[in-house]
């Protein structure tokens, strides 16, 4: 089975090949309801068509954006559209209509923008202040006139659509036809109403199956709809009523002032108000990979493009379906997400079992028909056929079809979807947003987590704790501690270095309080400047910014060039990673504020200060400046060092315990950070990541290593400091390709996108992460907390184990149902389980079984076992032991009851056969109920542990038993049952409960795991846990 599954049903979790996707689709057969089975499977034909449409649209947009020929300008001038203002626009107090406004940006029409008076004129025409933004009370008016920031989407399916889909099951359709014929023939032979009971019972049971299936599928779809909306809900920084605030992308309106920075996705069409070094990647729209500079000459920004560099403010001019992005999104059909490896594998399992079931159904029908014809031949009645005979043949056919219903486990692949939907919903509550279904599965196999330090292991609540200035180290408690020992000139230069060279802003919030907006590091430094008595706005107005080089993770510094007051030349400010800035400096600021030459001894002392700060787990930055005469470019050397700043960022509570949990689970944790190596090592030791024999290395050293050296270093590598995004990408590639590890990687910056995409599981930070990083990630950690990452791993393991539990349970029911009907048909010429009873069993093991077992919450024991390997057998020897053992027990019990039940149960009288058949049916159901309880744990004997934590499981158990009582005691006419006495009920329950004892005995039989647990050994030498009686 495993060989067949690997050859035909093996796909990669990320970016599976087209060939693999087509191969498994071709291999699938014996599908009862393709519409339901493949609802969550991508339509490759539609996907190809969508890709063709996308490329065609991109080409049109590319031509519109980049072909700026005189002829086109001439044609445009001749055919310029005359826009007229509608009454609605006039009454709302606006001077430009939505179509005209949208066309200005869409066609990059500089002439039209100029005719409206540029950005300022356009702002006046749509009644907005470029400083204060729109008034909140105008939002609904602007939405009515200019539209909502949403693109057209396919309407969600109603509940009745799921009912209709469930009714497309071919076997159920055949059974409905059989039921209708049965009713007709039954009434003709047995009269009204007795003749309709058999057929009506089948119809009612089909109705129950359809409704339960539809309810389950509908609830799943609602969960995915909520998750999908959450995935698309981006928070955007805007200014409204003079206050900076974050609003949902869906609430964005024309006239909003949007603030953009590196890594943001432009949320709507608009024009640039102001900005520095702003460049955007328009490849998502045009297919062109070259970044486009946005400035006063070319101020147009298109929705869906990504900010690659710089920052700026834009005025929103078009939203939703009036943007090119909205049109593109609406044109592309929803083609579905790539199916997960487990879904594909279980489609393969369902195919194999379906073929076996189909063979058994045909054999059962042939045996039943053969025996029936032999009996007729013995009575010389082969040529004499009555309606009763026809009804009997119809019943044989219905039983054969029902065996196919039971045997083809349609619910197996869908159980994965159910389990993933449940896990994703719970994870969203636990601050983890899963963007791709497969990530939830893959996280259960993770053998290594490469995590950032700042904000993930630490709190991200940064404060300046120490400062080295004028050759003295100061602990920051009161501002007098610093100001008392430095001159006014030094103080002025320090505050200039802080306020001039920052991407942060000091703005007033809704509550009237002053808020600092920016990265935690920037915020900490600006907050320190304010604490020192500085005024952000005063210092910003002193000088005009000429050039800006925004911070990026490659250069690890930020620079700005400003003009000095009274035309006294220009001053460049630079700040960033301590050792990088220190190399750029050849002078230090003296106590009188004058630059003085830096001696070699002073350089060593400063390096010692940096190392001392770092060893105290402080994040270190250097501030420097340089005066120049001409503003040609921002200089790269000969700076004057102003100060070394030590920023405190304490370790998050619970991180140490989370790291310990990872190590116990066989998951290696590595820190990959851009910070100083001593800071990283101090934090790593505090978290329990860096051990005595572990290696800490800097990014530049790592990238210079040969492949052989990397192979020696990586197994013991625990900290990589001063790393660039390319170093992180290289490490991930080595871990995956050379060491065959399943790697989870965290990232927050735009440049982290390649590493996030390359990793098996990309984890983007929800608070500190850019939108570009989030788009490349598989999971978004909403609270940036390492503990949440561990929780994702716990749920990933839970999904995998839950599906194994369900498969074990369903295969046992399949084997027993097939064998008991076939054996009985061969021996007695009749099937002990009727069509209605088999349909009920199918409901128990399919939809209800999936609900009960696939939604079990994770427990701590999951993190005490090693990760699930890349190429392990899905149906393990452990599972086969349980399936075969339980199947033999149930078949033996049911066969004994079938052929010797009357004597054992001392049944006499005319209704003895009916009582026995009912008892067999009841015992069979209770065997499944208790086997479902057994399946809660495939290894441990105590299967009732934490059962009260799973209310879904308890609910399904209660519902199953309750309906079984109703079916036996009250619905006998429809279900072919008769009421049972209390002692027979007790006997049924006890026989079913005996499967608990059988399971306990089976779990004491040791199993050689072999290939079942292929896991990578970590630096802690973690080995797979044993199974067998000692584990029990």
TrEMBL record:
Pfam families for the chain: CaATP_NAI (PF12515), Cation_ATPase (PF13246), Cation_ATPase_C (PF00689), Cation_ATPase_N (PF00690), E1-E2_ATPase (PF00122)
What is catalyzed by this enzyme? Answer: Ca(2+)(in) + ATP + H2O = Ca(2+)(out) + ADP + phosphate + H(+)
Its localization reads: Membrane
List its EC numbers.
Answer: 7.2.2.10
Q: Where is the Cation-transporting P-type ATPase N-terminal domain?
A: 115-187
| Entry's transmembrane regions | 166-189, 195-215, 352-374, 394-423, 878-900, 912-930, 951-972, 984-1002
Q: How does the protein's chain sit in the membrane according to the entry?
A: Multi-pass membrane protein
Q: Which domain of life is it from?
A: Eukaryota
Keywords annotated in UniProt = ATP-binding, Calcium, Calcium transport, Calmodulin-binding, Ion transport, Magnesium, Membrane, Metal-binding, Nucleotide-binding, Translocase, Transmembrane, Transmembrane helix, Transport
Q: What functional role does this protein have?
A: Catalyzes the hydrolysis of ATP coupled with the transport of calcium.
Question: Which family does the UniProt entry place this protein in?
Answer: Belongs to the cation transport ATPase (P-type) (TC 3.A.3) family. Type IIB subfamily.
Q: This protein is called what? A: Calcium-transporting ATPase
The organism named in the record is Hevea brasiliensis
């Amino acid at each position: 089975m495993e060989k067949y599954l690997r050859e035909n049903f093996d796909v990669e979790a990320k970016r599976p090949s087209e060939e693999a996707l087509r191969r498994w689709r071709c291999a699938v057969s014996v599908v009862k309801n393709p519409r339901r089975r493949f609802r969550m499977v991508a339509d490759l034909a539609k996907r190809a068509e969508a890709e063709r449409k996308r490329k065609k649209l991109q080409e049109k947009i590319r031509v519109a954006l980049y072909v700026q020929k005189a002829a086109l300008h001439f044609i445009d001038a001749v055919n310029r559209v005359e826009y007229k203002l509608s009454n609605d626009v006039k009454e709302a107090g606006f001077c430009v209509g939505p179509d005209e406004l949208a066309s200005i940006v869409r066609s990059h029409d500089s002439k039209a923008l100029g005719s409206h008076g540029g950005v300022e004129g356009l702002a006046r025409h749509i009644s907005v202040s470029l400083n204060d933004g729109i008034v909140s009370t105008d939002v609904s008016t602007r939405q009515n006139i200019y539209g909502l920031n949403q693109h057209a989407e396919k309407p969600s399916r109603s509940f009745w659509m799921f009912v209709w889909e469930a009714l497309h099951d071919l076997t159920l359709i055949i059974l409905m036809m059989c039921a209708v014929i049965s009713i007709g023939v039954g009434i003709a032979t047995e009269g009204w109403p007795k003749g309709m009971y058999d057929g009506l019972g089948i119809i009612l049971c089909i109705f129950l199956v359809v409704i339960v299936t539809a309810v389950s599928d509908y609830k799943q779809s609602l969960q995915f709809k909520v998750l999908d909306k959450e995935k698309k809900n981006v928070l955007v920084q805007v200014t409204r009523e003079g206050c900076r605030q974050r609003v949902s992308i869906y609430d964005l309106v024309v006239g909003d002032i949007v603030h953009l920075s590196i890594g943001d996705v432009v949320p709507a069409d608009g024009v640039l108000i102001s900005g520095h070094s702003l460049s955007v990647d328009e490849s998502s729209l045009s297919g062109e990979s070259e970044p486009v500079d946005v400035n006063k000459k070319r101020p147009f920004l298109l929705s869906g493009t990504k900010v690659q560099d710089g920052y700026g403010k834009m005025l929103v001019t078009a939203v939703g379906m009036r943007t090119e992005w909205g049109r593109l999104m609406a044109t592309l059909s929803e083609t579905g997400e790539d199916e997960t490896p487990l879904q594909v594998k279980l489609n393969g399992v369902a195919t194999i079992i379906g073929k076996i079931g189909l063979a058994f159904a045909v054999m059962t029908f042939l045996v039943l028909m053969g025996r029936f014809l032999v009996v007729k031949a013995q009575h010389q009645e082969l040529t004499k056929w009555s309606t009763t005979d026809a009804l009997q043949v119809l019943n044989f056919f219905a039983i054969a079809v029902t065996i196919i219903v039971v045997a083809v486990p349609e619910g197996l692949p869908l159980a994965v979807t159910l389990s993933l939907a449940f896990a994703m919903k719970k994870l969203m509550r636990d601050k983890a947003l899963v963007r791709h279904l497969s990530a939830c599965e893959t996280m259960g196999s993770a053998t290594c987590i490469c995590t950032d330090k700042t904000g993930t292991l630490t709190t991200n609540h940064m404060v300046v704790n120490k400062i080295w200035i004028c050759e003295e180290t100061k602990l920051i408690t009161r501002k007098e501690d610093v100001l008392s020992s430095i001159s006014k000139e030094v103080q002025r230069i320090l505050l200039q270095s802080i306020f001039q060279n920052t991407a942060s802003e000091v703005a007033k919030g809704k509550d009237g309080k002053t808020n600092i907006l920016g990265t935690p590091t920037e915020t900490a430094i600006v907050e320190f400047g304010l604490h020192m008595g500085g005024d952000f706005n005063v210092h910003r107005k002193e000088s005009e910014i000429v050039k800006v080089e925004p911070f990026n993770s490659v250069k690890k510094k930020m620079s700005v060039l400003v003009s000095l007051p009274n035309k006294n030349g220009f001053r460049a400010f630079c700040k960033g990673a301590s050792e990088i800035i220190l190399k750029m400096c050849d002078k230090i600021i003296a106590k009188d504020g004058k630059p003085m030459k830096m001696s070699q001894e002073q350089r060593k002392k400063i390096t010692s200060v940096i190392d001392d700060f770092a060893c105290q787990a402080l994040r270190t930055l250097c501030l420097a400046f340089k005066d120049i005469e001409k503003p040609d470019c921002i200089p790269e050397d000969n700076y004057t060092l102003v100060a070394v700043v030590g920023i405190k960022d304490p370790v998050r509570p619970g991180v140490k315990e989370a790291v310990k949990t990872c190590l116990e689970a066989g998951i290696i944790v590595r820190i990959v950070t851009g910070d100083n190596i001593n800071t990283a090592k101090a934090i790593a030791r505090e978290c329990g990541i860096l051990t005595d024999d572990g290696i800490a290395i800097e990014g530049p050293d790592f990238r210079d290593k040969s492949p052989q050296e990397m192979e020696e270093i990586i197994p013991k590598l625990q900290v990589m400091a001063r790393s660039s995004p390319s170093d992180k990408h290289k490490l991930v590639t080595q871990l995956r390709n050379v060491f065959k590890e399943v790697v989870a990687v965290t990232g927050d910056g735009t440049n982290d996108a390649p590493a996030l995409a390359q990793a098996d599981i990309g984890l983007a930070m929800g608070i500190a992460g850019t939108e570009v990083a989030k788009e490349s990630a598989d999971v978004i950690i909403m609270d940036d907390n390492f503990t949440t990452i561990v929780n994702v791993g716990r749920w990933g393991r839970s999904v995998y184990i839950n599906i194994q539990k369900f498969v074990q349970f369903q295969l046992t029911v399949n084997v027993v149902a097939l064998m008991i009907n076939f054996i009985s048909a061969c021996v007695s010429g009749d099937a002990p389980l009727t069509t209605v009873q088999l349909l009920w069993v199918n409901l128990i093991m399919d939809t209800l079984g999936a609900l009960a077992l696939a939604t079990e919450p994770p427990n701590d024991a999951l993190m005490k076992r090693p990760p699930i390997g890349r190429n392990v057998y899905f149906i393990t020897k452990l599972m086969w032991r349980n399936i075969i053992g339980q199947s033999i027990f149930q078949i033996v019990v049911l066969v004994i009851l079938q052929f010797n039940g009357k004597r054992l149960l001392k049944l006499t009288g005319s209704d003895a056969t009916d009582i026995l058949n009912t008892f067999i049916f009841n015992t069979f159901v209770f065997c499944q109920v208790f086997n479902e309880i057994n399946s809660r744990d495939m290894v441990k004997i105590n299967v009732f542990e934490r059962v009260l934590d799973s209310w879904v499981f308890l609910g399904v158990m209660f519902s199953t038993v309750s309906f079984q009582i109703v079916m036996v005691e009250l619905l006998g006419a429809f279900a072919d049952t008769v009421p049972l006495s209390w002692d027979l009920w007790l006997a049924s329950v006890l026989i079913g409960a005996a499967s608990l004892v059988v399971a306990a005995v089976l779990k004491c039989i040791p199993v050689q795991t072999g290939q079942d647990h292929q896991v990578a050994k970590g630096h802690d030498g973690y080995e797979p846990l044993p199974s067998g009686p000692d584990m029990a």
